[in-house]
Amino acid sequence: MGFSEIDILQIEEKGLSSKEVERQIKLFEKGNIKVDIQKAATPGNGIFVYSESEKKDLIAHYENKIIHLNPLKFVPASGAATRMFKALHNFTDEFDPEQESLRAYLDRKEDASLQRFFESIESLPFYDQALKLTREKYSSFNDKSKDQQQLLLVKTMLYEDGLNLTNLPKGLVPFHSYKDRIATAFEEHLYGASKYLNVNGLTRLHFTVAHGDKDKFEKEFETIKERVEKATNTQFEISFSYQDPKTDTIAVDNDNEPFRDEEGHIFFRPGGHGALIENLNNQDADLIFIKNIDNVVVEENLEEVLAYKKMLGGKLLQLQEQIFSYLSQLDAGNNSETKLDEIAHFIEKELSVELTTSFNKFTGEEKTQYLCRKLDKPLRVCGMVMNEGEPGGGPFLVKDETGEVTLQIIEGAQIDKDNMEQLKILNNSTHFNPVDIVCGIYNWKKEKYDLHQYVDERMSFIAHKTKDGKPLKALERPGLWNGGMAFWNTVFVEVPVSTFNPVKTVADLLKPNHRTK
Q: Does some domain include residue 15?
């Protein structure tokens, strides 16, 4: 494919090369690659389930080790609150109190979360502020009907001349109401992190944010800093990053030719959350906890969540110590048949990796090299929740193109639902991914892995979009915890559904784990 000099200049300004863009275009030509799931990961077969005493041991191991380490919490926080308020946008556009009652509108929409919103609107953390502002804006507010008041109140919550909630980053939307304050999701992440990442009075967090939002987060931090640091007896080191423009991907038309905008320029799009592997790769920490910005709870419900955080961290540190010990022993020449068999058993039992069928035919040196390759990778321990109808990717044992079977987090869109066997495996899965992950990104020599080397680029995903009224095909990079970590060593551990409390719609703020007593 030939690019003009102007095209090449534009590509290079993105930090890309023509070769990389051509590689991306070939992915469009291949189309979405469906994964080959062998079975769902389940308790005892890919998912570890720990007793109360085992959990306590892992927590104790974490607490004993963390004081000598440099941990970090990594929070993807670039999402806007727009989707959270989608049903309310539809309401302000569609509802006319002169034509129908609110009750009739809600019955017509048959939206349970919208009904819950209006039934408990006074319990929302921003209700009092919205009501005060609405009364100031509309002098005749008290003279209007209840339905008219509800419409004005929602408009005040959403739009720029009011609280402007819909245009905030989701992390800065008021989530929880306490007697002495209103807390955002951002503040709750700070408070929670201080309870398990505080080392010598310092807690470190990194947030990936949208361009234009960093100043908003920094302003919020300055506002709450004194209060939160006093409440937690902790100092916070907060850092931010954006999605790097060089992780943007080219869009193509239906003929897989570069899509061009109205000025004739090649059109690039952000590469999805999988592009954040670049941001993660730039972090410097002994272990990194990953959790989405909207998955928080009120303080009184935090204890159980923290216990499982420490359990996952303890599991990672325990595994990492054993892996580092084995690699050190192999490097020192301790590769007796007994030792090699011990390591092979560990890899199969603890990492759920099926060794090649020809392993027993290898020479001692070949076994040593093979086992080193299996052990010497970034490590992640992922919490998995029993499936109760919540959306999310799931844990599966997946066969790759070489025939190797490994544990992977797979999204539904990656599975061939036209294949009845694959669909049966999907339907029989028992757990889903809540994005509750702890990562080890250093090798046994204390050198950082280059995380780009462990991405399965074939797992890019093609989506159909439009621009300027014209259809295009967009390329999303392999998801951060899907193809983005495909070649890591992976361990799944069951955690309770009480640790998973995302806020997808505003009505989710009315659920028990988001409300104080």
A: no
Element (H, E) at 6: helix 5-13
The whole domain housing 91 covers 83-167
* Tokens encoding 130: 């919205």
Residue 28 burial by Cβ neighbours in a 10 Å radius (0-12, 13-18, 19+): buried
How many domains is the chain built from? 1
DSSP helix/strand/coil, 420: helix
Beta strands in 41-162 (DSSP E): 42-43, 46-48, 71-76
Residue 411 maps to a domain: no
Mean pLDDT for back-to-back runs of 10 residues, the chain (517 residues): 83 88 88 89 96 98 97 95 94 95 94 94 96 94 94 95 94 96 97 97 97 95 97 97 88 90 87 90 97 96 96 98 98 94 96 91 95 97 86 82 90 87 89 96 97 92 84 89 95 96 96 91
Q: Are strands 379-386 and 431-432 parallel, antiparallel or unpaired?
A: antiparallel
Question: Distance between CA atoms of 410 and 426, rounded to whole angstroms?
Answer: 10
Residue corresponding to tokens 């090699």: 340
Pairing of strands 287-291, 436-440: antiparallel
Q: What is the DSSP string of 454-483?
A: G--GGG-EEEEEEETTEEEEEEEPPPTTTG
Beta 268-269 vs 249-250: how paired, if at all? antiparallel
Q: How far is CA 44 from the centre of its chain?
A: 25
* Pairing assessment for the beta strands 36-40 and 489-494 based on DSSP bridges: unpaired
37 assigned to some structural domain: no
Please indicate, yes or no, if residue 71 is contained in any of the structural domains.
Answer: no
